[in-house]
Each structure stands twice: as C-alpha cells, then as structure tokens.
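Q: What residues go here?
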C-alpha cells in the first residue's frame, strides 16, 4: 500500500474512532507509519485526506464524455452515462460509506463537499461545451451532477444495488418528471 493510501486509511480509522476535530495530523501519520513531512507531501491538511483534490472523479467523467461525444445527441444522457461508468464506489463501498459518514458529521466538511460539487459541475460543463450548445451544456452538467448526488444517496442506503443501477434509476425518474404535464 502506498503512503497516500496508508494515510487515508489511518485518517478514516481515527476520524471514526476519535472524531474529525479530535484527530491530529501527527496521530494520522503515526498510525500510517510515516512522518508528518510525508503527510504534508501528500495532503495540505487533514481535511484534504477526505477529498479528491485532483478531481479524479471529474476527470473520469470528462474522459468518458470526450470518448463518447459522438455517440448521442443528448448531452444529459452522455454526462449521466459518464457517472454510471464509475466503478470506484462499488469497488470501495465500505471506505466510501465511512467517508460519507465523516463528512456528514462536520459542517466544514459538508461545505467543502458542496464546493467539490461545483468543481464537478464545471468539469462536466467544460467537457460538454465543445460538443453541444452552451445552455444545453450548462444545464446538462448541473442536472447530471444532481442526478449523481441523488443516486449516491440512494446507493448509500440500498446495499443490493450497484451505483450504476442507482444512476439509471434516478435518471429514469428525472425523465418521468420532465414528461409530466
């Protein structure tokens, strides 16, 4: 296991045991078996351990959109398909659920999660915009991220469905809503 992964595992363990506020970088580093200097090479602070500061999720969705932009005339479906292609959550279910629990327990972390969502919207919008009208790109980015969030909440509560199934379920509900008179 790489030092970054060790630090993430140690931080999650300590945040769950002691709480986010009561955990120090020194304790995280010690449990991970690395120095504080190594910690700060990987992360800017202890909250950074919980967040995708490099926007890997946004990059995965953007890559999907770029690779499949000629497959459809529907930018929303394309963006939703990009989110549905993500396997990270199903592959790391326990860790993802713990992270969610930690973030939900602290107001500052919730706020950072909202900022992360804005970054995700911009990533999707910027990838859609060369292929679609700017208004369609903007709306599709916002709606797809909202569909992603609703699907994620459902996924955290329903163990028997994969994340992609939740995405398509929420997307189908959205389509029904749009079709209402």
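A:
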């Amino acid at each position: 296991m790489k030092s970054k992964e060790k630090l993430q595992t140690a931080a999650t363990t300590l945040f769950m045991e002691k709480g986010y506020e009561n955990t120090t970088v020194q304790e995280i580093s010690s449990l991970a078996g690395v120095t504080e200097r190594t910690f700060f090479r990987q992360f800017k602070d202890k909250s950074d351990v919980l967040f995708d500061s490099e926007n890997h999720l946004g990059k995965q969705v953007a890559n999907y959109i770029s690779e499949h932009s000629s497959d459809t005339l529907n930018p929303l479906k394309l963006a939703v398909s990009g989110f549905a292609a993500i396997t990270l959550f199903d592959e790391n279910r326990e860790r993802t659920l713990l992270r969610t629990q930690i973030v939900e327990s602290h107001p500052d972390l919730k706020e950072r999660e909202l900022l992360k969502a804005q970054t995700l919207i911009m990533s999707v919008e910027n990838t859609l915009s060369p292929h679609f009208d700017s208004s369609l790109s903007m709306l599709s980015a916002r709606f797809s991220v909202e569909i992603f969030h609703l699907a994620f909440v459902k996924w955290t509560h329903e163990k028997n469905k994969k994340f992609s199934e939740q995405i398509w379920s929420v997307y189908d509900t959205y389509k029904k809503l749009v079709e209402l008179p």
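A: Context that may help when evaluating the design: Residues 121 and 156 are 21 Å apart (CA to CA). The chain has a mean pLDDT of 94.
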